[in-house]
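Below is the data:
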Amino acid sequence: MIYTATIDIKAENLHLEETKISIEKEGIRYGKGSVDFSDISYIRPLNHRVYITSFNGKTAEISMLGFSFDGFWEELVALFGERTRASLFIEEEKLMDCEAEYDLPESSAAPREAGRGRLQLYSDAVCILPVSSNAIRIPLCYTESIRLDGYLLHIHMRTGEHYTVGRMGYDTQPFAERCMDRAKKVKAVREQLLGRITQLPEPYTGKGLFRTAQSEEYWLSAYGENCCAIELFTNDKAATYLYRFEDRQLFTFRLEEAMEAVGSHREIIFLAEEELKDKPLYRMAVHRSEAVRFLRGCSAGRIIHTAAHGEKLREFLA
């Protein structure tokens, strides 16, 4: 739908009246300008105005929407949410969708955030969708515990993060029960599928899946002292990815979570920062996954499969 409104961007000293605005799949278009969803830090309504704040600190104020305000806000939230879900690479079955309170822990990309937004349960994950860039997909296979305390559901991860969601009305109890049930099932299925990977070529000793549903694609890991080599077994061109770290257990947990987060989009783990600039959906993905940022920060290069591959790999691990 096309809306007519006034736009003010103070940082650019821009004031446009009766401007045509459209909300599209990848962002907002107004006149000759646009705002990509990947650049948005948060959006909020206030006094029949919509404020859109970008990561660079610029804030766009959209006003004079008249009777179209409610429709504009609903469409903006819906399409921003759809783009966010796309950046989380969610392809699995949705089991529940409701409105809930949430409390997100502080991360390396954002401060702690609490509020109310969409809460969704998928066959393998819980997704929290605030009207900000702090949306998150929580993989159920890596939860340490899930506990319902009154109206609040507490989700604890192996790496120490604690997510709280709840106050969903009549959906609270069913959501909690189905969430706990799916966590048990996805862990059991994942363990069974990993058990099928029995032949680990030297020097690989660790193994993992990407998404649980992608049972034919997996990765192997080989460790040296404070370093690790990862081999991806997919339909893509072969390469070995190298990492250095300080804490092996933390690295292993983050490695597993990052691989699960990217699913079939493995290039995110090695794309250079300048290459991410041309891939807005991937920028959104990196911002929304602490594990992916951690793994990228540990990168030590990669080894292409040539005749010298084995020798280079041994040298790195040594």
In short: The chain has a mean pLDDT of 95.
